[in-house]
Protein backbone atom coordinates (compact mmCIF):
# COMPACT_ATOMS: atom_id res chain seq x y z
CA UNK A 1 0.00 0.00 0.00
CA UNK A 2 1.68 3.25 1.15
CA UNK A 3 5.06 1.59 1.54
CA UNK A 4 4.82 0.75 -2.12
CA UNK A 5 4.23 4.35 -3.14
CA UNK A 6 7.19 5.39 -0.98
CA UNK A 7 9.62 3.50 -3.22
CA UNK A 8 7.96 3.80 -6.63
CA UNK A 9 8.48 7.15 -8.26
CA UNK A 10 5.18 8.67 -9.38
CA UNK A 11 4.96 9.35 -13.11
CA UNK A 12 3.24 12.70 -12.72
CA UNK A 13 5.78 13.90 -10.20
CA UNK A 14 8.64 12.86 -12.48
CA UNK A 15 7.15 14.90 -15.30
CA UNK A 16 6.54 17.94 -13.11
CA UNK A 17 9.93 17.72 -11.47
CA UNK A 18 11.70 17.44 -14.83
CA UNK A 19 9.85 20.43 -16.28
CA UNK A 20 10.22 22.60 -13.19
CA UNK A 21 13.85 21.78 -12.63
CA UNK A 22 14.73 22.42 -16.24
CA UNK A 23 12.90 25.75 -16.12
CA UNK A 24 14.63 26.57 -12.86
CA UNK A 25 18.06 25.90 -14.32
CA UNK A 26 17.32 28.04 -17.37
CA UNK A 27 15.64 30.89 -15.45
CA UNK A 28 18.07 31.02 -12.58
CA UNK A 29 21.01 30.83 -14.97
CA UNK A 30 19.75 33.88 -16.79
CA UNK A 31 18.38 35.83 -13.83
CA UNK A 32 20.74 34.93 -11.05
CA UNK A 33 23.80 32.79 -11.62
CA UNK A 34 25.19 34.60 -14.65
CA UNK A 35 25.05 38.11 -13.16
CA UNK A 36 26.14 36.85 -9.75
CA UNK A 37 29.10 34.83 -10.96
CA UNK A 38 30.15 37.58 -13.35
CA UNK A 39 29.86 40.26 -10.69
CA UNK A 40 31.79 38.17 -8.22
CA UNK A 41 34.52 37.80 -10.78
CA UNK A 42 34.55 41.52 -11.51
CA UNK A 43 34.62 42.31 -7.82
CA UNK A 44 37.39 39.84 -7.12
CA UNK A 45 39.40 41.28 -9.97
CA UNK A 46 38.88 44.83 -8.78
CA UNK A 47 39.84 43.86 -5.24
CA UNK A 48 42.93 42.13 -6.57
CA UNK A 49 43.73 45.17 -8.66
CA UNK A 50 43.30 47.46 -5.68
CA UNK A 51 45.56 45.27 -3.60
CA UNK A 52 48.13 45.10 -6.37
CA UNK A 53 48.12 48.84 -6.91
CA UNK A 54 48.41 49.43 -3.18
CA UNK A 55 51.40 47.11 -3.13
CA UNK A 56 52.84 48.92 -6.11
CA UNK A 57 52.28 52.30 -4.50
CA UNK A 58 54.03 51.06 -1.39
CA UNK A 59 56.97 49.87 -3.44
CA UNK A 60 57.09 53.14 -5.32
CA UNK A 61 56.95 55.04 -2.07
CA UNK A 62 59.82 52.98 -0.71
CA UNK A 63 61.77 53.52 -3.92
CA UNK A 64 61.09 57.24 -3.75
CA UNK A 65 62.19 57.37 -0.18
CA UNK A 66 65.38 55.52 -0.91
CA UNK A 67 65.89 57.81 -3.91
CA UNK A 68 65.45 60.79 -1.66
CA UNK A 69 67.94 59.43 0.77
CA UNK A 70 70.37 58.78 -2.03
CA UNK A 71 69.87 62.27 -3.40
CA UNK A 72 70.40 63.76 0.01
CA UNK A 73 73.52 61.72 0.47
CA UNK A 74 74.76 62.78 -2.93
CA UNK A 75 74.01 66.43 -2.19
CA UNK A 76 75.86 66.19 1.07
CA UNK A 77 78.85 64.65 -0.66
CA UNK A 78 78.74 67.26 -3.36
CA UNK A 79 78.61 70.01 -0.77
CA UNK A 80 81.54 68.45 0.93
CA UNK A 81 83.47 68.36 -2.34
CA UNK A 82 82.57 71.92 -3.24
CA UNK A 83 83.50 73.18 0.16
CA UNK A 84 86.78 71.36 0.00
CA UNK A 85 87.52 72.76 -3.44
CA UNK A 86 86.65 76.26 -2.32
CA UNK A 87 88.89 75.92 0.68
CA UNK A 88 91.71 74.68 -1.53
CA UNK A 89 91.25 77.49 -3.99
CA UNK A 90 91.24 80.02 -1.18
CA UNK A 91 94.33 78.49 0.31
CA UNK A 92 96.06 78.49 -3.04
CA UNK A 93 95.12 82.08 -3.60
CA UNK A 94 96.43 83.03 -0.21
CA UNK A 95 99.64 81.12 -0.80
CA UNK A 96 100.10 82.66 -4.21
CA UNK A 97 99.46 86.12 -2.87
CA UNK A 98 101.97 85.55 -0.14
CA UNK A 99 104.54 84.30 -2.59
CA UNK A 100 103.86 87.20 -4.92
CA UNK A 101 104.33 89.65 -2.13
CA UNK A 102 107.55 88.03 -1.10
CA UNK A 103 108.80 88.02 -4.67
CA UNK A 104 107.83 91.63 -5.18
CA UNK A 105 109.55 92.65 -2.01
CA UNK A 106 112.67 90.75 -3.00
CA UNK A 107 112.61 92.32 -6.40
CA UNK A 108 112.19 95.75 -4.95
CA UNK A 109 115.06 95.14 -2.57
CA UNK A 110 117.15 93.87 -5.46
CA UNK A 111 116.29 96.90 -7.53
CA UNK A 112 117.08 99.17 -4.66
CA UNK A 113 120.40 97.39 -4.15
CA UNK A 114 121.24 97.70 -7.81
CA UNK A 115 120.32 101.38 -7.84
CA UNK A 116 122.38 101.99 -4.74
CA UNK A 117 125.32 100.17 -6.29
CA UNK A 118 125.08 102.13 -9.48
CA UNK A 119 124.80 105.37 -7.56
CA UNK A 120 127.74 104.31 -5.43
CA UNK A 121 129.85 103.52 -8.50
CA UNK A 122 128.89 106.79 -10.09
CA UNK A 123 129.61 108.68 -6.91
CA UNK A 124 132.94 106.88 -6.49
CA UNK A 125 133.89 107.65 -10.08
CA UNK A 126 133.01 111.26 -9.56
CA UNK A 127 134.96 111.37 -6.35
CA UNK A 128 137.96 109.79 -8.14
CA UNK A 129 137.93 112.31 -10.97
CA UNK A 130 137.44 115.12 -8.51
CA UNK A 131 140.34 113.86 -6.42
CA UNK A 132 142.49 113.54 -9.52
CA UNK A 133 141.65 116.99 -10.65
CA UNK A 134 142.31 118.37 -7.22
CA UNK A 135 145.59 116.49 -7.00
CA UNK A 136 146.62 117.88 -10.35
CA UNK A 137 145.73 121.40 -9.32
CA UNK A 138 147.55 120.94 -6.03
CA UNK A 139 150.53 119.50 -7.82
CA UNK A 140 150.47 122.36 -10.29
CA UNK A 141 150.32 124.90 -7.48
CA UNK A 142 153.08 123.09 -5.60
CA UNK A 143 155.26 122.87 -8.64
CA UNK A 144 154.70 126.44 -9.36
CA UNK A 145 155.66 127.32 -5.80
CA UNK A 146 158.79 125.09 -5.75
CA UNK A 147 160.11 125.95 -9.12
CA UNK A 148 159.80 129.66 -8.84
CA UNK A 149 163.53 130.39 -8.74
CA UNK A 150 166.41 128.96 -10.72
CA UNK A 151 168.12 127.44 -7.87
CA UNK A 152 165.18 125.29 -6.94
CA UNK A 153 164.94 124.16 -10.57
CA UNK A 154 168.52 123.23 -10.66
CA UNK A 155 168.37 121.37 -7.38
CA UNK A 156 165.51 119.29 -8.75
CA UNK A 157 167.29 118.46 -11.92
CA UNK A 158 170.33 117.46 -9.97
CA UNK A 159 168.23 115.32 -7.79
CA UNK A 160 166.87 113.54 -10.86
CA UNK A 161 170.30 113.17 -12.32
CA UNK A 162 171.50 111.77 -9.07
CA UNK A 163 168.82 109.19 -9.14
CA UNK A 164 169.64 108.34 -12.72
CA UNK A 165 173.33 108.07 -11.92
CA UNK A 166 172.67 105.67 -9.15
CA UNK A 167 170.85 103.49 -11.59
CA UNK B 1 23.57 38.19 22.57
CA UNK B 2 24.46 34.84 21.04
CA UNK B 3 23.15 33.13 24.13
CA UNK B 4 19.83 34.93 23.85
CA UNK B 5 19.63 34.02 20.18
CA UNK B 6 20.31 30.44 21.04
CA UNK B 7 17.60 30.49 23.67
CA UNK B 8 15.21 31.96 21.17
CA UNK B 9 16.12 29.29 18.63
CA UNK B 10 15.46 26.55 21.17
CA UNK B 11 12.16 28.11 22.12
CA UNK B 12 11.15 28.39 18.48
CA UNK B 13 12.07 24.77 17.79
CA UNK B 14 10.08 23.76 20.85
CA UNK B 15 6.98 25.48 19.58
CA UNK B 16 7.44 24.02 16.14
CA UNK B 17 7.54 20.58 17.67
CA UNK B 18 4.53 21.36 19.81
CA UNK B 19 2.73 22.33 16.65
CA UNK B 20 3.78 19.05 15.10
CA UNK B 21 2.50 17.13 18.08
CA UNK B 22 -0.86 18.90 18.11
CA UNK B 23 -1.25 18.30 14.41
CA UNK B 24 -0.63 14.69 15.14
CA UNK B 25 -3.05 14.42 17.97
CA UNK B 26 -5.71 15.66 15.58
CA UNK B 27 -4.68 13.12 13.03
CA UNK B 28 -5.04 10.48 15.62
CA UNK B 29 -8.45 11.71 16.63
CA UNK B 30 -9.53 11.63 13.02
CA UNK B 31 -8.59 8.01 12.70
CA UNK B 32 -11.50 7.29 14.99
CA UNK B 33 -11.72 6.60 18.68
CA UNK B 34 -12.43 2.95 18.18
CA UNK B 35 -9.54 2.21 15.85
CA UNK B 36 -6.15 1.40 17.24
CA UNK B 37 -3.34 3.85 16.50
CA UNK B 38 -1.43 2.58 13.49
CA UNK B 39 1.97 4.25 13.63
CA UNK B 40 3.37 2.93 10.35
CA UNK B 41 0.32 4.06 8.43
CA UNK B 42 0.46 7.55 9.95
CA UNK B 43 4.18 7.88 9.31
CA UNK B 44 3.98 6.70 5.72
CA UNK B 45 0.98 8.91 5.13
CA UNK B 46 3.16 11.87 6.12
CA UNK B 47 6.16 11.09 3.96
CA UNK B 48 4.50 10.03 0.70
CA UNK B 49 2.75 12.07 -1.93
CA UNK B 50 -1.00 12.71 -1.72
CA UNK B 51 -3.77 14.40 -3.64
CA UNK B 52 -4.81 16.42 -0.63
CA UNK B 53 -2.79 18.56 1.72
CA UNK B 54 -3.86 17.83 5.22
CA UNK B 55 -2.91 20.51 7.79
CA UNK B 56 -5.30 19.78 10.63
CA UNK B 57 -8.67 18.17 11.14
CA UNK B 58 -11.93 19.92 10.68
CA UNK B 59 -13.72 21.44 7.77
CA UNK B 60 -10.97 23.88 6.74
CA UNK B 61 -7.97 21.82 7.70
CA UNK B 62 -7.59 20.04 4.38
CA UNK B 63 -6.54 21.57 1.08
CA UNK B 64 -8.05 19.63 -1.82
CA UNK B 65 -5.63 19.81 -4.69
CA UNK B 66 -6.52 19.66 -8.37
CA UNK B 67 -6.46 16.25 -10.03
CA UNK B 68 -5.26 16.06 -13.62
CA UNK B 69 -5.58 12.59 -15.11
CA UNK B 70 -5.28 11.17 -18.57
CA UNK B 71 -6.50 7.80 -19.71
CA UNK B 72 -6.94 6.38 -23.18
CA UNK B 73 -10.58 5.69 -22.53
CA UNK B 74 -11.62 9.06 -21.11
CA UNK B 75 -8.97 11.51 -22.27
CA UNK B 76 -7.76 14.37 -20.12
CA UNK B 77 -9.82 15.24 -17.05
CA UNK B 78 -9.33 17.93 -14.43
CA UNK B 79 -11.27 18.05 -11.18
CA UNK B 80 -10.80 18.69 -7.48
CA UNK B 81 -9.55 15.88 -5.34
CA UNK B 82 -12.30 16.87 -2.91
CA UNK B 83 -14.59 14.85 -5.08
CA UNK B 84 -12.94 11.70 -3.81
CA UNK B 85 -14.00 12.46 -0.26
CA UNK B 86 -17.46 12.45 1.22
CA UNK B 87 -18.63 14.56 4.16
CA UNK B 88 -17.13 12.11 6.64
CA UNK B 89 -13.75 12.36 4.92
CA UNK B 90 -14.05 8.84 3.60
CA UNK B 91 -12.71 7.97 0.17
CA UNK B 92 -15.41 7.47 -2.46
CA UNK B 93 -15.19 6.87 -6.22
CA UNK B 94 -15.76 9.87 -8.47
CA UNK B 95 -16.79 9.72 -12.10
CA UNK B 96 -14.63 7.25 -13.98
CA UNK B 97 -11.97 7.09 -11.31
CA UNK B 98 -11.34 5.60 -7.89
CA UNK B 99 -8.69 6.58 -5.36
CA UNK B 100 -6.93 3.59 -3.83
CA UNK B 101 -4.13 4.26 -1.32
CA UNK B 102 -3.37 7.58 -2.94
CA UNK B 103 -3.31 6.18 -6.46
CA UNK B 104 -5.95 6.96 -9.04
CA UNK B 105 -7.31 4.02 -11.03
CA UNK B 106 -10.02 3.62 -13.58
CA UNK B 107 -13.20 2.52 -11.79
CA UNK B 108 -14.03 0.12 -14.60
CA UNK B 109 -10.57 -1.36 -15.05
CA UNK B 110 -8.18 -0.97 -12.07
CA UNK B 111 -5.30 -2.49 -14.05
CA UNK B 112 -5.46 0.01 -16.94
CA UNK B 113 -2.77 2.69 -17.20
CA UNK B 114 -3.77 6.13 -15.94
CA UNK B 115 -1.40 9.04 -16.34
CA UNK B 116 -1.76 11.06 -13.17
CA UNK B 117 -0.22 14.52 -13.57
CA UNK B 118 -2.19 16.04 -10.70
CA UNK B 119 -0.95 19.01 -8.77
CA UNK B 120 -0.33 16.75 -5.79
CA UNK B 121 1.04 17.79 -2.42
CA UNK B 122 4.62 17.24 -3.54
CA UNK B 123 4.06 18.99 -6.87
CA UNK B 124 2.64 22.00 -5.04
CA UNK B 125 5.64 21.90 -2.73
CA UNK B 126 7.82 21.79 -5.83
CA UNK B 127 6.08 24.92 -7.14
CA UNK B 128 6.56 26.66 -3.80
CA UNK B 129 10.21 25.68 -3.72
CA UNK B 130 10.78 26.84 -7.29
CA UNK B 131 8.95 30.13 -6.69
CA UNK B 132 10.96 30.78 -3.55
CA UNK B 133 14.21 30.08 -5.40
CA UNK B 134 13.28 32.40 -8.23
CA UNK B 135 12.10 35.22 -5.97
CA UNK B 136 15.13 35.06 -3.71
CA UNK B 137 17.80 34.64 -6.35
CA UNK B 138 16.24 37.13 -8.74
CA UNK B 139 16.50 39.69 -5.95
CA UNK B 140 20.05 38.64 -5.20
CA UNK B 141 20.96 38.71 -8.89
CA UNK B 142 19.47 42.19 -9.25
CA UNK B 143 21.61 43.48 -6.40
CA UNK B 144 24.67 42.26 -8.26
CA UNK B 145 23.54 43.68 -11.57
CA UNK B 146 23.09 47.12 -10.02
CA UNK B 147 26.67 47.52 -8.95
CA UNK B 148 29.12 44.69 -9.24
CA UNK B 149 31.84 46.34 -7.22
CA UNK B 150 29.69 47.25 -4.24
CA UNK B 151 30.06 45.32 -1.01
CA UNK B 152 27.28 42.75 -0.57
CA UNK B 153 24.49 43.41 1.87
CA UNK B 154 21.29 41.81 3.10
CA UNK B 155 20.33 38.63 1.32
CA UNK B 156 23.31 39.04 -0.96
CA UNK B 157 25.71 38.60 1.92
CA UNK B 158 23.77 35.59 3.15
CA UNK B 159 24.04 33.71 -0.13
CA UNK B 160 27.34 34.98 -1.45
CA UNK B 161 29.47 32.78 0.81
CA UNK B 162 27.38 29.75 -0.16
CA UNK B 163 27.69 30.53 -3.86
CA UNK B 164 31.42 31.06 -3.43
CA UNK B 165 31.64 27.80 -1.52
CA UNK B 166 29.95 25.91 -4.36
CA UNK B 167 32.19 27.62 -6.87
CA UNK B 168 35.50 27.31 -5.04
CA UNK B 169 35.09 24.12 -3.02
CA UNK B 170 32.73 22.04 -5.17
CA UNK B 171 32.92 23.08 -8.81
CA UNK B 172 36.55 24.18 -9.17
CA UNK B 173 38.36 21.26 -7.49
CA UNK B 174 36.10 18.56 -8.95
CA UNK B 175 35.60 19.80 -12.50
CA UNK B 176 38.74 21.80 -13.16
CA UNK B 177 39.34 24.57 -15.64
CA UNK B 178 36.02 24.54 -17.47
CA UNK B 179 33.94 24.55 -14.31
CA UNK B 180 32.11 27.76 -15.26
CA UNK B 181 30.01 25.95 -17.84
CA UNK B 182 28.50 23.70 -15.16
CA UNK B 183 28.28 26.24 -12.36
CA UNK B 184 24.67 27.33 -13.05
CA UNK B 185 23.54 23.70 -13.05
CA UNK B 186 25.36 22.91 -9.81
CA UNK B 187 24.15 26.05 -8.07
CA UNK B 188 20.55 25.37 -9.07
CA UNK B 189 20.94 21.79 -7.94
CA UNK B 190 22.40 22.78 -4.58
CA UNK B 191 19.88 25.45 -3.72
CA UNK B 192 16.95 23.40 -4.98
CA UNK B 193 17.90 20.54 -2.66
CA UNK B 194 18.84 22.80 0.24
CA UNK B 195 15.59 24.75 0.09
CA UNK B 196 13.59 21.58 -0.45
CA UNK B 197 15.23 19.94 2.55
CA UNK B 198 14.67 22.93 4.80
CA UNK B 199 11.10 23.52 3.65
CA UNK B 200 10.38 19.85 4.24
CA UNK B 201 11.30 20.32 7.89
CA UNK B 202 8.60 22.91 8.41
CA UNK B 203 5.50 21.65 10.17
CA UNK B 204 2.78 20.71 7.74
CA UNK B 205 5.16 20.84 4.79
CA UNK B 206 5.38 18.15 2.17
CA UNK B 207 8.37 15.87 1.84
CA UNK B 208 9.78 17.13 -1.46
CA UNK B 209 13.43 16.05 -1.50
CA UNK B 210 12.56 12.84 0.32
CA UNK B 211 10.44 11.75 -2.62
CA UNK B 212 12.14 9.22 -4.82
CA UNK B 213 10.67 10.70 -8.01
CA UNK B 214 12.22 14.07 -7.23
CA UNK B 215 15.63 12.67 -6.37
CA UNK B 216 15.48 10.39 -9.39
CA UNK B 217 14.90 13.30 -11.75
CA UNK B 218 17.70 15.30 -10.14
CA UNK B 219 20.04 12.34 -10.55
CA UNK B 220 18.93 11.86 -14.17
CA UNK B 221 19.81 15.48 -14.84
CA UNK B 222 23.29 14.86 -13.51
CA UNK B 223 23.44 11.67 -15.60
CA UNK B 224 22.47 13.55 -18.75
CA UNK B 225 24.85 16.45 -18.12
CA UNK B 226 27.67 14.03 -17.36
CA UNK B 227 27.24 11.84 -20.42
CA UNK B 228 26.49 14.62 -22.89
CA UNK B 229 29.70 16.35 -21.89
CA UNK B 230 31.77 13.20 -21.56
CA UNK B 231 34.89 13.45 -23.71
CA UNK B 232 36.58 10.70 -25.68
CA UNK B 233 38.81 9.76 -22.73
CA UNK B 234 35.72 9.14 -20.65
CA UNK B 235 34.13 6.88 -23.23
CA UNK B 236 37.40 5.15 -23.99
CA UNK B 237 37.82 4.46 -20.31
CA UNK B 238 34.42 2.81 -20.25
CA UNK B 239 34.48 0.78 -23.46
CA UNK B 240 38.17 -0.01 -23.79
CA UNK B 241 39.70 0.57 -20.38
CA UNK B 242 43.38 1.35 -20.99
CA UNK B 243 46.09 -0.50 -19.11
CA UNK B 244 44.02 -3.64 -18.54
CA UNK B 245 44.92 -7.02 -20.10
CA UNK B 246 42.52 -8.19 -22.80
CA UNK B 247 40.86 -11.04 -20.89
CA UNK B 248 40.15 -8.71 -17.98
CA UNK B 249 38.51 -6.23 -20.33
CA UNK B 250 35.61 -8.64 -20.70
CA UNK B 251 34.94 -8.21 -17.00
CA UNK B 252 35.91 -4.57 -16.61
CA UNK B 253 33.92 -3.15 -19.52
CA UNK B 254 30.50 -4.43 -18.35
CA UNK B 255 31.32 -3.17 -14.86
CA UNK B 256 32.22 0.24 -16.26
CA UNK B 257 29.01 0.35 -18.29
CA UNK B 258 27.07 -0.59 -15.20
CA UNK B 259 28.93 2.20 -13.39
CA UNK B 260 27.37 4.82 -15.66
CA UNK B 261 24.01 3.89 -14.21
CA UNK B 262 24.97 3.12 -10.63
CA UNK B 263 26.21 6.69 -10.20
CA UNK B 264 22.81 8.35 -10.66
CA UNK B 265 21.19 5.47 -8.79
CA UNK B 266 23.34 6.10 -5.75
CA UNK B 267 22.54 9.81 -5.97
CA UNK B 268 18.82 9.04 -6.11
CA UNK B 269 18.81 6.67 -3.19
CA UNK B 270 21.18 8.62 -0.97
CA UNK B 271 19.15 11.82 -0.91
CA UNK B 272 15.81 10.04 -0.78
CA UNK B 273 16.87 7.83 2.11
CA UNK B 274 18.62 10.54 4.10
CA UNK B 275 15.66 12.89 4.05
CA UNK B 276 12.87 10.33 4.34
CA UNK B 277 14.66 8.48 7.13
CA UNK B 278 14.97 11.70 9.09
CA UNK B 279 11.26 12.34 8.73
CA UNK B 280 10.41 8.78 9.67
CA UNK B 281 12.59 8.90 12.78
CA UNK B 282 10.96 12.11 13.94
CA UNK B 283 7.47 10.83 13.22
CA UNK B 284 8.20 7.51 14.91
CA UNK B 285 9.37 9.26 18.06
CA UNK B 286 6.25 11.38 18.07
CA UNK B 287 4.12 8.29 17.46
CA UNK B 288 5.57 6.80 20.63
CA UNK B 289 3.59 9.39 22.57
CA UNK B 290 0.35 8.08 21.11
CA UNK B 291 1.32 4.45 21.46
CA UNK B 292 2.16 4.78 25.14
CA UNK B 293 -0.29 7.59 25.90
CA UNK B 294 2.04 8.73 28.67
CA UNK B 295 3.19 12.19 29.75
CA UNK B 296 6.70 10.93 30.51
CA UNK B 297 7.11 9.46 27.08
CA UNK B 298 5.68 12.70 25.69
CA UNK B 299 8.29 14.83 27.43
CA UNK B 300 11.08 12.39 26.59
CA UNK B 301 10.28 12.08 22.93
CA UNK B 302 9.73 15.83 22.58
CA UNK B 303 13.25 16.45 23.82
CA UNK B 304 14.67 13.78 21.53
CA UNK B 305 12.67 15.06 18.57
CA UNK B 306 14.02 18.53 19.23
CA UNK B 307 17.56 17.23 18.84
CA UNK B 308 16.68 15.10 15.84
CA UNK B 309 15.19 18.21 14.31
CA UNK B 310 18.43 20.10 14.85
CA UNK B 311 20.35 17.20 13.33
CA UNK B 312 17.95 17.26 10.40
CA UNK B 313 18.87 20.90 9.79
CA UNK B 314 22.47 19.76 9.52
CA UNK B 315 21.50 16.82 7.31
CA UNK B 316 19.55 19.18 5.04
CA UNK B 317 22.72 21.15 4.32
CA UNK B 318 25.00 18.11 4.18
CA UNK B 319 22.81 16.21 1.73
CA UNK B 320 22.50 19.24 -0.55
CA UNK B 321 26.29 19.56 -0.46
CA UNK B 322 26.88 15.84 -1.01
CA UNK B 323 24.51 15.62 -3.96
CA UNK B 324 26.09 18.66 -5.60
CA UNK B 325 29.59 17.49 -4.79
CA UNK B 326 29.05 14.06 -6.33
CA UNK B 327 27.39 15.61 -9.37
CA UNK B 328 30.42 17.83 -9.80
CA UNK B 329 32.71 14.86 -9.32
CA UNK B 330 30.94 12.79 -11.97
CA UNK B 331 30.95 15.70 -14.39
CA UNK B 332 34.61 16.28 -13.60
CA UNK B 333 35.49 12.65 -14.28
CA UNK B 334 33.74 12.78 -17.63
CA UNK B 335 35.22 16.06 -18.79
CA UNK B 336 38.73 16.11 -17.32
CA UNK B 337 41.65 16.58 -19.66
CA UNK B 338 44.29 13.89 -19.90
CA UNK B 339 47.67 15.21 -20.76
Structural Rg of chain B: 24 Å
* End-to-end separation of chain A: 200 Å
Structural class of chain B: mainly alpha
Largest sheet of chain B: 3 strands, antiparallel
- Helix tally of chain A equals 3
Low-confidence stretches of chain B: 27-34
Distance between the termini of chain B: 55 Å
Main interface: chain pair and counts: A-B, 40 and 54 residues
> What is the average per-residue confidence, as pLDDT of chain B, rounded to a whole number?
86
- Cα-based radius of gyration of chain A, to the nearest Å: 67 Å
Could you say which structural class the secondary elements and strand pairing of chain A correspond to? mainly alpha
- Shape of chain A from CA axes? rod-shaped
Summed over residues and divided by their number, the pLDDT of chain A gives a mean of 90
Number of helices of chain B: 9
Number of domain modules of chain A: 1
Strand content of chain B: 5-15%
Strand adjacency order, main sheet of chain B: 4-3-7
Please bin the fraction of helical residues of chain B: 55-70%
Number of strands of chain B: 7
Order of helices and strands of chain B: HHEEEEEEEHHHHHHH
Q: Give me the oligomer status.
A: heterodimer
Compact summary:
Chain A has about 170 residues and is an all-alpha fold.
Structure commentary:
- The complex is a heterodimer of chains A (167) and B (339).
- With 167 residues, chain A is mostly helical.
- Chain A has one domain (2-166).
- In chain A, 95% of the residues lie in helices and 0% in strands.
- Chain A has helices spanning 2-7, 11-146, 150-166.
- The longest helix of chain A is centred in the middle third of the chain and has 136 residues, at 11-146.
- Chain A is rod-shaped and about 205 Å long.
- The model of chain A has no long low-confidence stretch (mean pLDDT 90).
- Chain B has 339 residues and is mainly alpha-helical.
- Chain B has a domain at 121-335.
- In chain B, the strands form three sheets. A three-stranded antiparallel beta sheet of chain B has the order 4-3-7, with no helix packed on it. Chain B has a two-stranded antiparallel sheet with strand order 1-2.
- In chain B, β1 (52-54) and β2 (62-64) form a beta hairpin.
- The radius of gyration of chain B is 24 Å and the shape is globular.
- The interface between A and B is large, with 40 and 54 residues.
